[in-house]
Write a structure and sequence with these properties.
CATH architecture of the largest domain: Alpha-Beta Complex
Distance between the termini: 50 Å
Structural class: alpha/beta
Shape: elongated
Largest sheet: 6 strands, mixed
Helix content: 25-40%
CATH class of the largest domain: Alpha Beta
Number of domains: 2
CATH superfamily of the largest domain: Creatinase/methionine aminopeptidase superfamily
Order of helices and strands: HEHEEEHEHEHHHEEEEHHEEEEEE
Strand order of the largest sheet: 4-3-2-1-5-6
Radius of gyration: 24 Å
């Protein structure tokens, strides 16, 4: 953790400090941002306060007095609850406005990690607590140049695996060999391994009504056959098997047959154009050096789908932050599940993935958008037409 950079960010945000708190590793953000040892397993509460100016301060339990020895700062030790409260107040006595891993009304669940009781305890010292969401984004969600290159490299490989997966299914259909969603999923997993790609779970391979469940995932026990006349959705994400590598995450759809039904084609066109509207909206705003928040991207995409009468069939956010975890901690493109007011900043990447989910079939189209200094771009291939299988 680079204290000087954090303090610069605190002063820019007109905050007096950032208070980190944890008990039993409830807050993974704190451990990553502070770069605490991976084997640290605290059973007692600790506090770490980074002021906007001056030396950081630590408060740890006497039983685990070495919990925060890996980070700089003056250390105080407590044992009783009264001792803890008195020393916490002393730690914060010069602060009026501080950040914590808290989000009003839990608007940003990824950041809302400090329990309500601790928030009450800290507020009782007289400070005003504000969300650390923007700070978390700055120190967690912005990529280095190397990470961007890792993303591009992973993207080329994932795009290739996607093409191979569609070809694999298409060949099975052409030869009239039985093929299930699960078999196609396992084919993708094998191709990932050959390319030295890793993923936390998935991918999603779904036909027809299964594709209308955004989080559907086939298994050996529960899977459908892929047959002529089916809509096929493939959502796959992976990253290089490298330290600090970041994910690439896309969704494409295809049709098993020569003639795509008019209803399917119409839904695909609406989803595709909504996706393109979203990415172009970001590109235009960034090029104009205009501020842009996550909820605004969601509004741009969602309004297109609503104009075509499918508002009730698009029931998830437009996109999510992408990082070393496929669902990162930066701004989400969301004004449905939450009202994400965080600004999209240079060095961040996120998905744009509208979908329309009908009882008979679902269509989703997903790309990744990276924002640089004064420019933004879609980082991989973009689907323009449904794939014929």
């Amino acid at each position: 953790m680079q204290i000087d950079l954090v303090q610069t960010a605190l002063r820019a945000a007109k905050l007096d400090g950032w208070l980190f708190f944890d008990h039993h590793r409830r807050d993974p953000l704190a451990y990553r941002i502070l770069d605490l040892p991976k084997d640290l397993q605290p059973t007692r509460r600790w506090y770490y306060f980074v002021p906007s100016n001056g030396e950081p301060r630590k408060l740890v339990h006497r039983i685990e007095s070495g919990s925060l020895d890996s980070v700089p700062g003056n250390k105080s030790v407590y044992s009783s609850w009264a001792d803890q409260q008195q020393k916490l107040a002393t730690m914060l006595n010069s602060a009026k406005r501080i950040a914590m891993q808290y989000s009003p009304n839990c608007a940003i669940p990824y950041v809302s990690l400090v329990d309500a009781g601790t928030i009450e305890l800290v507020r009782a010292t007289g400070v005003e607590i504000l969300t650390s969401a923007d700070l978390v984004q700055e120190f967690e969600a912005l990529w280095t140049e190397q990470q961007f290159q890792f993303h591009l490299e992973a993207g080329k490989l994932v795009d290739q695996v996607l093409r191979e997966a569609f070809a694999f299914v298409s060949e099975k259909l052409r030869c009239k060999h039985a093929i299930t969603e699960y078999e196609a999923q396992q084919f993708i997993r094998r191709q990932f391994a050959q390319c030295n790609l890793v993923c936390d779970h998935g991918p999603i391979v779904a036909v027809n009504a299964n594709a209308s469940d955004p989080h559907y995932e086939p298994s050996s026990e529960s899977t459908s056959h892929i047959q002529s006349g089916d809509v096929l959705l493939i959502d796959l994400w992976a990253k290089l098997q490298q330290p600090e590598s970041v994910y690439y995450d896309i969704t494409w759809t295809g049709f098993c047959g020569d003639v795509i039904p008019e209803t399917v084609q119409n839904v695909f066109s609406v989803v595709r154009d909504a996706r393109k509207r979203g990415s172009q909206f970001v590109i235009d705003r960034v090029t104009q050096n205009a501020p842009i928040a996550g909820f605004e991207v969601d509004d741009a995409v969602r309004s297109h789908i609503a104009q075509h009468g499918y508002a009730d069939h698009f029931f998830h956010r437009t996109g999510h932050s992408i990082g070393t975890e496929v669902h990162g901690t930066g701004a989400n493109m969301d004004n449905l599940e939450s009202h994400d007011e965080r600004r999209i900043t240079a060095g961040s990447c996120f998905s744009i993935e509208p979908g329309i989910y009908l009882p008979e079939f679902g269509i989703r189209s997903e790309v990744n958008v990276f924002v640089g200094d004064g420019s933004a771009r879609v980082t991989g291939e973009q689907q323009e037409e449904m794939v014929h299988l």
